[in-house]
Write a structure and sequence with these properties.
Layout: H1 3-13, H2 15-21, H3 25-30, H4 37-61, H5 64-85, H6 98-105, H7 112-139, H8 143-170, H9 174-201
Helix pairs in contact: 1-9, 2-9, 4-5, 5-8, 6-9, 7-8, 7-9
Length: 210
């Protein structure tokens, strides 16, 4: 397996989850049904803050190219947080999103390959969120903020490509790729489970895509 095949396989494995995370219900789930600009900003700020903390910790725990990657990602996520939180009068970080909980607790901290795979899965799930936020602010006739979230998604694309390059260097066997694949799927499924649980708690059927 190579990096391109890896991404294609992860997308195929998680096609339904990614499709539903990219539906119009995704933002409704993330905001608890409060579809206003401030609540969207808060959901985005929570996600960026949690991402910064996760990857800053990983940067300290990993060495070499993986450590360098996550140090740069942590810096980028910190800037993302500052940008989004700057849209609010104040921000106290809320609950840690499900995908970050999985990355922190569900991936072996000694396994750089699994962490890289989980990170790739996180980018695939997170880009769906960014797309919905872009669409929301486009619908609010706020092209500047829509572009902000479009730019954040662009950073995710760059992060994923760099992570895939590091992953390809680290994977020496099919078993390595499989561990990365499992972690990537775990990250996506964690995001999907949170989406499902949020909608169900509000009495909304999460399955139909609209």
């Amino acid at each position: 397996m190579d990096a391109e095949q890896f991404v294609e396989t992860v997308r195929d494995d998680n096609e339904t989850a990614l499709s539903r995370l990219g539906s119009s219900k995704s933002l409704y789930a993330a905001t608890g049904g409060e579809m206003d600009s401030e609540t969207v900003y808060r959901a985005a700020a929570d996600a960026e803050h949690a991402a910064h903390e996760t990857f800053a910790a990983w940067a300290d725990e990993l060495d070499g190219d993986a450590g360098d990657l996550f140090a740069d990602v942590a810096d980028t996520e910190r800037e993302h947080y500052k940008t989004v939180a700057g849209k609010l009068d104040d921000h106290d970080p809320g609950a840690v999103p499900g995908v970050q909980e999985f990355l922190r607790e569900g991936v072996d901290e000694r396994d750089a390959v699994a962490r890289l795979g989980g990170f790739v899965g996180r980018t695939l799930a997170s880009e769906k969120s960014k797309e919905q936020m872009t669409g929301f602010f486009t619908g609010q006739a706020d092209p500047q903020t829509a572009q902000l979230f479009r730019d954040l998604k662009g950073d995710l694309d760059e992060q994923r490509e760099r992570a895939l390059a590091v992953l390809a260097d680290r994977c020496e066997s099919d078993e390595d790729w499989e561990r990365a694949r499992d972690a990537a799927g775990g990250a996506i499924q964690a995001a999907y489970e949170e989406y499902t649980e949020s909608l169900e708690s509000m009495g909304v059927n999460p399955k139909p895509v609209c």
